[in-house]
Amino acid sequence: MVIQWYPGHMAKARRQVQEKIKQIDVVIEVCDARAPLASRNPLVDEMTRSKPRLMLLNKSDLADPEMNRKWADYFEKQGDAVLIVDAQKGKGIKDIPGKVNELAKPLYEKWARKKVNPRPIRALIIGIPNAGKSTVINRLAGKRITKIGDKPGVTKAQQWIKVDRQLDLLDTPGILWPKFEDPHVGQMLALTGAIKEEIFDYEESAVYLLRFLSQSYPELLKSRYQIEEVPEEVGDLFDLIGKRRGILISGGRIDYERVSELVFRDFRSGHFGRITLEFPETSRT
Ligand code: G4P
């Protein structure tokens, strides 16, 4: 998969984040729990290091529960606060304001020392496309999503959202792209839906997924396609799945394109069960 991360995009995103970072107290980062590192923008970590961060492992309902816990430990060890969430069903969302408040404790202490009235905490919410940022915002703010006017020195177009009396959210519409020069990262983003279907090859992604499942989740693979043993060669696995499902072209040969689409759709629809595509201990990103 040849996908470029254009330097122009990077420069623009950098400028936009830099502008925003000055106005905020806390960063809330939404990632896809099925690929927590692959689904992060590389700029974010670098540019937000000066701010406390809450990592949301979203789509946790689709990810391996054991891995959700491991990834939570991983980020906590790095000094971040973490919540395992399912924004679609609203699970874990109500804990966000409390976590943000904990992260803002030094700020409250500073205000108390200076005897100033606390203002709402300002959190920047970020996430690559499709990680679930809008769903999180809707769950958090619901009907209260209204622009809450401009802060001093802030451009009008910025989107501030009031969550409650203590928390304002600053959204970052459409500026953060994942980095997918690494082919593994590219495949994970294709599988999880972060990059558009027109720019990747189903067959390549299916091969990647089947190799990964054979190694890491063989039982789920066997049960989905009623296979007794997973063959070593991925080509044989394609044949087996094609035969099981009767995905043939004339002459009785396997239709690899349709098998690829089936495997890909099965993953996207969660038909294999709960799967995490990268593990903290073996992560390449
Ligand atoms: P974005 O703003 O980060 O781009 O993502 P958005 O909230 O639009 O979510 C992208 C897709 O992911 C949506 O599905 C959304 O419903 C789904 N999603 C968000 N959070 C979760 C979660 O925790 N679990 C699961 N399973 N899905 C989640 P969609 O197919 O684009 O739309 P729809 O199916 O909701 O109609």
Which helices and strands occur, and which strands form pairs?
Elements: H1 7-21, E1 26-32, H2 42-47, E2 53-58, H3 65-77, E3 81-84, H4 96-103, H5 105-114, E4 121-126, H6 133-141, E5 160-164, E6 167-171, H7 183-192, H8 202-216, H9 218-225, H10 234-245, E7 248-249, E8 253-254, H11 256-268
Parallel strand pairs: 1-2, 1-4, 2-3, 4-6
Antiparallel strand pairs: 5-6, 7-8
Helix pairs in contact: 8-9, 8-11, 10-11
This protein binds guanosine-5',3'-tetraphosphate.
Question: What do these coordinates show?
Answer:
With 285 residues, the chain is α/β, with parallel strands linked by helices. It folds into 2 domains: 8-171, 3-Layer(aba) Sandwich (Rossmann fold), CATH 3.40.50.300; 201-279, Conserved Hypothetical Protein Ylqf, Chain: A, domain 2 (Orthogonal Bundle), CATH 1.10.1580. 42% of the residues lie in helices and 13% in strands. The protein is built from 11 helices and 8 strands. It has helices at residues 7-21, 42-47, 65-77, 96-103, 105-114, 133-141, 183-192, 202-216, 218-225, 234-245, 256-268; strands at residues 26-32, 53-58, 81-84, 121-126, 160-164, 167-171, 248-249, 253-254. Strands 3-2-1-4-6-5 form a 6-stranded mixed sheet, with helices on both faces. Helix 8 packs across helix 9. The longest helix is centred in the N-terminal third of the chain and has 15 residues, at 7-21. The protein is elongated. Bound molecules: guanosine-5',3'-tetraphosphate. Residues 58-59, 61-62, 86-88, 127, 129-135 line the site of guanosine-5',3'-tetraphosphate (G4P). InterPro entries: G_CP_dom, GTP-bd, GTP-bd_ortho_bundle_sf, GTP-bd_ribosome_bgen, GTPase_MTG1, P-loop_NTPase. One of its GO terms (molecular function) is GTPase activity.
